[in-house]
Amino acid sequence: MRHHNVVACRDRMDPITVKRFYSLDVLRGFAALSVVFWHWPHFFFSGTKPGTFDAARLPFSEWMFVFYTKGWLAVDLFFCLSGFIFYWLYSTRIYQCEISPSKFALLRFSRLYPLHLATFLFVVVGQFWMIHVAGRYFVYPNNDVKHFLLHLVLASSWGFERGHSFNGPVWSVSVEVSLYVMFFFCSRLLPIRAFLLAAFSLVGFLFIQKLYPPMGRGIGSFFFGGCVFLAYKAILSSHRSFVLTKWVIILTANVWIVTIAAVYQGIDTRLLTVYTTLFSPRYEALFDWIIQKVLVLWPVLAVFPLTILSLALFETHRGSLAKRLSFLGDISYSSYLLHFPLQILFAAIVSGFGIDNSVYYSPWLMLLFFAVLVLACFLSFRYLEMPAQNYLRKMGLIWVNSAEDSDIMR
Fold it and tell me: What pTM was estimated for this model as a whole?
């Protein structure tokens, strides 16, 4: 009987083959919705110029103020998640030449472009409608032919733009497209090693971000996500995998406790500087600078990677986690791309009825906005994104296979 219990216990500890990380889907879904809080002040814009508003009166501000002030960090979480997922799904297959460049491009194009095109055209019509009824664009100013063409080819954030335009949030999707190209050729041409991915990440954070922040953020977090995947893989291959998983989860929990305490209670950075050390005061400025940098990058370099690693390890050892909420991952892309078009629609209605901007302080209006957004996302996923993706992949694979067969015949 005792032997049976030991065997059963070991079976529960053994890693399982994961086909989908439901918990990471949920994480991505919450991140996408958190961006809506970050962009809620769009409603207080005066045309394309930020307006004044009372942050304390924003809907649910007592609990959600961190999303109103730090919601932009969700994009870095997206990049890190993408790095983890892409290295998990594709890196080995690409390295072994099981996926061709054309097939990989088809897989990504069919997933991203249909909804991008639909929301982009909606915003084009919406922005020119705002010009007609209000005499000015809404939030994003650079809505000209050049930026139209950049959006059309998903290059709106490759360094050719003058600023945000049309469906502004799509900038991160544009960066991600360029990351896919880098990822494919790195996976095909270079060995998949942690030190290489860490070097790419470091270059992104330290150098490219100074030259062009959107691309630097993307490269830094994406390849750091690849490092997280390699850490996940290394832990699973260890004979102490279950023990290491427990310690990673404990570490992640403590990181979150410290982070939440720092956010909601405040933190005196002087406690972290040379005021409590024996170093010479002449190094004080340097230590202050380092600490400030660490605090800014703390979510990107600690909270997000550890959270992704912990959830992936937990789900690998214990089975599917948060499967019932995984629909949030299904609608994460649509909620990210649809929320600004929906903001234009709401702004046009409120302006058309002559309602004062103070209505955007109403929790009920926010709840209505989220309800409409989630419904639109479900409809988009079921009736636009998936049918378009399946059709494009079906037709595209015929072309890709025939082209590859022709190359072989030559």
Answer: 0.90
